[in-house]
Amino acid sequence: MNSVRGLLAASVISVQNSCFFYPACQKCFSRLILDSRRFNCVKCGCTGEAKDASYRYRLSLKIADTNDLFDITVFGSCLDPFFGVTAENLQRCIQDLNQLSGETNTEAPPGVLVQAVETCFIGKRFIFGV
């Protein structure tokens, strides 16, 4: 793997999916496997109660600089200022909202959140560390 790092100034063309956060292992940040009661990290073997799972931001974007298109994923707390809350708090709010509205998929973000994220990012220029 190439270890050269740099900065890339680019504009966001699109948000690739509406999965803005995921249950993350506190040790290795990998996606946790959740069931109704427990979580398990396939990568490092960490386990615990599902209610204690932590969440982390994951924003997949298509971006463009002056010459090229790139698919990029932004992870972690650097997204807190854009969402106004931590990923864990956003997950709780969405889960509560979906339960109140009778939505059966309690992890799905409401359409208004997807629209807000698209409005916040699409067409804007950012500097990405790659």
UniProtKB/TrEMBL annotation:
Matching entries from Gene3D superfamilies are given as: Nucleic acid-binding proteins
Q: Which residues form the Replication factor A C-terminal domain?
A: 9-95
Keyword Glycosyltransferase belongs to the record: no
Q: Name one GO molecular function term.
A: DNA binding
* TM ranges: none
Q: For this entry, list what GO says about its biological process.
A: negative regulation of intrinsic apoptotic signaling pathway in response to DNA damage
Q: Which residues form a coiled coil?
A: none
Instruction: State if Zinc is listed as a keyword.
Output: yes
The alphabetized UniProt keywords are: DNA-binding, Metal-binding, Zinc, Zinc-finger
List the GO terms this entry assigns under cellular component, sorted alphabetically. cytoplasm; nucleus
* Family classification: Belongs to the replication factor A protein 1 family.
What name does this protein carry? DDIAS protein
Q: Which organism is it from?
A: Haliaeetus albicilla
